[in-house]
Every structure is written in C-alpha cells, then in structure tokens.
Design goal:
By secondary structure, this protein is of the alpha/beta class. The protein has 2 domains: 66 residues, no CATH class; 213 residues, Rossmann fold (3-Layer(aba) Sandwich), CATH 3.40.50.1820. An 8-stranded mixed β-sheet has the order 1-2-4-3-5-6-7-8, with helices on both faces. 40% of the residues are buried. The N terminus and C terminus are likely disordered.
C-alpha cells in the first residue's frame, strides 16, 4: 500500500510539473477534482471497536445512520473521508450518562448514498447539509461532537440555523489554505495551477478565507448566543494545526481547550480520558440546558 501511494504521488508530481508549464488550466481542473474527492475507506476498517449499545438504524434521503439510548440527543459528526462510528468510543459513555446518541455517514461517505457531487465526491457545504438533514429527521440537537472537517461543517450548520446547546470540536480544521499548502507540498503543483484552482473555487463558493472557522463565528453570533464549546486537540496533529484550536478558543467566548501530546489526528478520538472529558462537558448542568427529566434527576 505504501509503495502504491508513493507511486501515485510521483505520478501526480510529474503530471502537475508538466501541466504547470504547458496547460495550467487543465492542471487546475485536475486539482479541483482531487480537492473534492472523498477517499474510500474499506468496510472492514469502518467496523466499530468494542461493544456498542443496541442500535436503531435509519435512512433519511440516502444518509444511513444509527441511534442509541434515550434522552437529550447528541450527534456525532465525522470529518472528510470519515464515518459515523469513527467516533464510536463516545457512544456507550454518552448513553450511560443519559443521552441519546445519533451517528451517521454523510452523503458520499461510508454506507450512505452519493450526494449532489456524485459518487466519491462532496463539499464542506454538503457535510453541513447532511447534519441539518439528519437533525431535521431525528430531532433537536442538545449536543454535537464533531471531528476534523466535521467541526467547520457543524459551525456552518449553526450559522444556517441549527440550534444546539453544547458542542465539542475534536482536532478541528480551521483554515483550508493550510490544507491547500499541504497538498501543494505533496503534489508539487505551482503558482499558476494554484491560482487557477482558487479562481474556480471562488467562482462557485466565494473566497476560501470566508470558510475559515474564525470568520464563521461572528455569523453564528449574529443570530444567537454562541453555544458552550469544548475544543480537544493534539499538539502534534499533522493534519489540522493545533494553533487553529488555540485561535478559536480566543475568539469563542467561554470556550475551553483540552490538549494532548502524541495522539495525532485520529487516535485522539479513542483516548479514554479525553472521551470522559467530552462526556462530562456535555453532562454539565447549565442554565437553559434542554434536558429531559431523566437527565436532570441523574445530574442532580
């Protein structure tokens, strides 16, 4: 697998180097397709680790998911190329704490049907729409636990009207120019291809900077009080810079940041201590929390 990946990278580096010189517009089109491509994850890799509570499956507009337990509903939101049970370590602790938990695979991810972009392709906006579609079918969100690109997708959903009391962002993606920089370093395309790609992106979605998480925060605050927020991030995360969560903590009033070292971008989802802290944060009593009588009695 490593050898195949290395061969693919060398192929793209050679191709982009050539296209940069002779056909940067074509190169921009190739980059555009790569940017919105959802990586396939084998079914075996998506199997849950450990035992889970009894689940109730659902399908809403091609989005397949499961719900567990009873009580105020917490939605688990995966990131790009992820799947609902990728956050499965949170399910049993949340159910034990008196929550109902909803997991799902967004359009074009996991077991769900393709979305607007077709098979194996999607956008950040479609991730946000997946969350809004599931919440509309499964009921109001008390809380959200979101990983990586699922965090800005959740923020966009809140900007567009999703109401939620408490949010946990794990290894959040904040600045998409960081990812573009990483892709450019890996694949070797030049300034002409990059500029052409950004023109395509902006013609369809607006400036890439407008999707920076810190730019979305004021838009959420214009329509409602910001929900309580816990951020969790590993200092050595190679995919989403830790500094992004530090910056969000400064811009989101009352936000708290939990830090780890050496867990990276995905193992952080399974760390028992950090899972416990996320559950405790969601279970804290606060004025205005929409809790069921069962949850109030448990926490009282």
């Amino acid at each position: 697998m490593a050898a195949k990946k290395s061969t693919n990278v060398r192929f793209f580096r050679f191709g982009f180097s050539l296209l940069e010189r002779v056909a940067p517009g074509v190169g921009a089109g190739v980059l555009n397709r790569l940017w919105f491509r959802v990586p396939a994850v084998p079914e075996k890799a998506r199997r849950p680790r450990g035992e889970l509570p009894a689940a109730t499956p659902f399908d809403v507009d091609g989005i397949r998911g499961r719900s567990y337990g009873a009580g105020p509903t917490v939605y688990l939101v995966h990131g790009w190329g992820g799947w609902g049970l990728q956050l499965g370590a949170h399910i049993k602790p949340l159910v034990d704490a008196g929550f109902r938990v909803v997991t799902y695979d967004a359009w074009s991810h996991g077991d769900s049907a393709p979305g607007r972009e077709g098979k194996n392709a999607s956008t950040l906006l479609e991730l946000a729409d997946s969350l809004k579609t599931v919440v509309a079918a499964q009921g109001p969100a008390y809380g959200v636990v979101a990983h990586s690109l699922g965090a800005p997708a959740t923020a966009l959903a809140m900007r567009d009207g999703l109401d939620v009391d408490r949010v946990v962002f794990i290894a959040t993606a904040t600045d998409f120019t960081d990812w573009l920089d990483q892709l450019q370093a890996a694949l070797g395309f030049g300034a002409r291809i990059r500029a052409g790609f950004l023109r395509r992106f902006e013609a369809r979605f607006g400036p890439m900077d407008s999707f920076h998480l810190n730019a979305v925060i004021p838009a959420i605050a214009e329509r409602r009080a910001l929900p309580l927020l816990l951020l969790v991030h590993d200092r050595s995360d190679p995919e989403t810079p830790y500094q992004g969560s530090v910056d969000v903590t400064g811009d989101w009033p009352g936000a708290r940041l939990e830090t780890s070292d050496g867990l990276g971008h995905r193992r952080i989802l399974r760390d028992p201590d950090l899972v416990k802290k996320a559950v405790e944060f969601l279970a804290e009593r606060a004025p205005g929390d929409r809790r069921s009588g069962r949850q109030e009695r448990m926490l009282g």
